[in-house]
Amino acid sequence: MLTGKHVVLGVTGGIAAYKACEVVSRLRKLHAGVDVIMTENATKLVAPLTFETLSCRPVCIDTFSRTESWDVKHISLAQKADVMVVAPATANLMAKLAHGIADDMLSTTLLATKAPILLAPAMNTGMWTAEVTQANLQTLLARGVKTVGPASGLLACGDNGAGRMSEPAEIVEAIVSILCPSKDMEGMNVLVTAGPTVERIDPVRYLTNDSSGKMGYALAQAAQQRGANVTLVTGPVHIPVPAGVHVINITSTMSLYETMMEQCGKQDIIVQAAAPADYRVEKTADQKIKKQAGEPLVLKLVENPDIAKAVGQCKKEGQILVGFAAETQNVLVNAQKKLTSKNLDLIVANDVTAEGAGFGVDTNIVTLITKEGADALPKLSKSEVAERIWDKALSLKK
Ligand code: PMT
Question: What number does the ligand 1 atom closest to the CA of 338 have?
Fold first, then answer.
């Protein structure tokens, strides 16, 4: 299953290090290549020879050890990895990773890698629930680092609570899902709207908003990777289009409306992450409006169609409609009203005034609201938010 894939496994100094041996063994049985990096403390708990025997590769411990090959080890392993996994990940390792500290072989390799990172935290309950550990966790999640566990139960120190490292089978399952993303949207037609609209005032001026398109593009990319046929209807933005996605460019809210009326009947799932203008200038001037010194310029704005509502009115049997609510106050109440008034199955509420949420940034803090209830997510990368939205939309489709 993992032939041709390469896992770099970091092992830190927690008692759960012994379980990491089974992680290596399981990965080898799936034909993955595995390199193990141990911290000095980890070598006091498990002999490096155990990992060398299981992985059939020398274990890296010391950044400055002389090796037979001349490559710079922490860089070569960082580049070789298809995924970097740390199991067990101690509170210390998480703190270092969150703050960019690179003072040994494992932390330097983690800092240098561009591969996805998966942590299997393991520590005492008090350490896990400590405010600083949780803050570090939030920082890491917001950067796209993934985690598996920890589980709750009896810990080596005798305490009972959260902090047990997940079982090896579960860790390997998480690795497989990163390396071989599931194609659970194979054959589905999905449409995502993204970015702002532009409402022309005259040939040189317009009304718009701060949407960068990042949220919608992350949704389009995630669905494409999960096997869907994706149509991305986008306002003008400055980010690259995800590969393998069919793009329709729009500018004004009216052009978005026309496109959506044409496209919506063909889709299994529609997610509207765009930020269309609620109003447009009644009459766009043909020529540049001249300044009248001392006189105010009065623009008459007329209401644009509510596109999500119009799509909701022609909803097909079995179709799933997802909207966003960009709110600055009474977030959940306002989002709930939009869920009903636009005939949506799911609404993604974001408080666009919260730090790390909404327009322009790479993270978002959202609550997924359905008729059944609300699921508040922590601050996550927009890619991770996108995955959670698709997971929820698929669960509604079943
Ligand atoms: O693009 P980014 O920089 O990544 O920022 C992401 C985002 C903040 C734009 C995104 O997360 C978001 O919240 N998008 C919805 C913005 C918005 O228009 O929210 P709204 O609450 O005004 O509208 C509710 C829903 O109705 C939305 O799904 C919207 O697409 C839709 N709508 C709005 C107005 C309109 N005339 N027609 C619509 O269909």
Answer: 24
